[in-house]
């Protein structure tokens, strides 16, 4: 008799979620770090070797919760971990991703980007074309994970716990430019919106800077050329850590 996955002793049909993460922002290095019970940051790789209070306590977004879920090692028995691992764990030679690398914060944004990628790849947003269905198993797993996340969020007491000093801003540079969300072309400079209003000619330079503003439960993205990158973003601008501009 051939055994199936449902006959394995360790198999479960019930998702096993991790609790909502308690994260704080480290001022010196800008990393999102777990918080101790006393509210201090856990030790982490940072040029300030005496981590203390965070500069902000971060809301547990869907992306941050899935990142915490990816730390489990029960992929074969827990669909939540399998989904989280696909999103945040690459191969053993790749840098491990964190929520700051993602251009989505909610399940809705993640689902939408998956269909945009499918549209760019095949010319159709059907992820299950053989069955003629728009969504496939991964879409359903995202919906299931979001339902679990919403239950955890409803049961959590977040009132008065999370500061909101303003959006967390991440600025990265890629000399190759940044691919549009629908994968059809490179992003143009955001300054074109303001140039059109002012009657100025459009910017033709390559938009090599990406500015991600994390507002807690949603992200905003803008793209800028060297000349038009706003001054407030220049001090923290760093090269993109996740793409090799010299790759063929």
Description:
This protein has 5 helices and 7 strands; from the N terminus they run E-E-E-H-H-H-H-E-H-E-E-E. It is α+β, with helices and mostly antiparallel strands and 248 residues long. It has 2 domains: 13-155, no CATH class; 168-239, no CATH class. A hairpin with a 4-residue loop joins strand 5 (209-214) and strand 6. Helix 3 runs antiparallel to helix 4. The radius of gyration is 20 Å and the shape is globular.
Detail the topology: elements first, then pairings.
Elements: E1 23-25, E2 32-34, E3 56-58, H1 62-69, H2 79-88, H3 107-122, H4 137-155, E4 168-173, H5 191-198, E5 209-214, E6 219-224, E7 238-239
Parallel strand pairs: 4-7
Antiparallel strand pairs: 1-2, 1-3, 4-5, 5-6
Helix pairs in contact: 1-2, 3-4
């Amino acid at each position: 008799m051939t055994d199936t996955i449902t006959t394995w002793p360790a198999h479960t049909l019930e998702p096993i979620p991790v609790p909502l993460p308690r994260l704080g922002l480290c001022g010196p290095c800008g990393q999102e770090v777990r918080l101790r019970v006393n509210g201090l940051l856990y030790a982490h790789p940072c040029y300030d070797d005496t981590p203390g209070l965070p500069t902000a306590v971060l809301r547990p977004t869907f992306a941050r919760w899935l990142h915490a879920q990816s730390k489990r090692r029960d992929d074969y028995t827990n669909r939540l971990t399998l989904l989280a691992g696909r999103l945040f764990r690459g191969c053993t030679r790749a840098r491990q991703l964190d929520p700051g690398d993602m251009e989505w914060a909610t399940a809705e944004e993640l689902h939408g980007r998956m269909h945009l990628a499918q549209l760019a790849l095949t010319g159709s947003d059907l992820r299950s074309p053989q069955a003629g269905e728009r969504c496939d198993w991964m879409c359903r797993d995202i919906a299931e994970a979001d339902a679990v996340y919403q239950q955890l969020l409803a049961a959590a007491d977040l009132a008065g716990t999370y500061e909101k000093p303003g959006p967390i801003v991440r600025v990265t540079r890629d000399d190759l430019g940044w691919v549009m969300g629908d994968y059809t072309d490179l992003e143009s400079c955001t300054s074109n919106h303001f140039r059109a209003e002012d009657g100025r000619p459009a910017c033709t330079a390559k938009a090599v800077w990406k500015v991600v503003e994390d507002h807690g439960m949603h992200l905003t993205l803008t793209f800028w050329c060297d000349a038009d990158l706003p001054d407030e973003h220049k001090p923290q601008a760093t090269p993109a850590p996740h793409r090799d501009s010299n790759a063929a």
